[in-house]
Amino acid sequence: MNDQDISTPNNIPMLIGMNITSKLALEAEMSPLVLVAYRQVFATLAIAPFAYWMEWKTRPQITMPIIFQIFLCSLTGALGSILIVAGLYSVLWGKTRETATLEGKETDANTKLDAVFKEIEKNDLELQLQK
């Protein structure tokens, strides 16, 4: 395990900013896959100059094993980001669908069943009050 966890106080503003921009982009109906691609490109462009400047004296020779390791790291990072954003997207889509159902914009089997059960409860209460 790393000495520094991702949720340290120094990283919290970054996580908050990433959460807000992801939510705004998804609410603006941006595709989650496009959001992940843009986020990866922006992160690469933002961090590359610092990496070059800080490591230019100690840079090892680039060999095939190093290129393969870079490829695996970028692949797993991109896949993880896609899974996270797709999960957020599905949660937000589910909440939107639930809200639309409650507002009467969408009628499906669950809404009809709810209406039937409410009618049964109403009739049952009327029968109990009559007794």
Notes on the structure:
The protein is 77% helix and 0% strand. It starts with 11 loop residues before the first helix and ends with a helix. It is mostly helical. The model has no long low-confidence stretch (mean pLDDT 75).
In terms of topology, how is this protein built?
Layout: H1 12-27, H2 32-55, H3 64-102, H4 109-130
Helix pairs in contact: 1-3, 2-3
Describe the structure concisely for a colleague.
This protein has 131 residues and is mainly alpha-helical.
Number of strands: 0
Distance between the termini: 68 Å
Q: Helix count, per DSSP?
A: 4
Structural class: mainly alpha
Major sheet: size, sense and barrel closure? Answer: none
Q: What general outline do the C-alpha atoms trace?
A: elongated
> Mind telling me the C-alpha Rg?
25 Å
- Percent of residues in helical segments? over 70%
What fraction of the residues are assigned to beta strands by DSSP?
Answer: under 5%
pLDDT below 50 for ≥5 consecutive residues: which ranges? none
List keywords for this structure.
single chain, elongated, 131 residues, mainly alpha
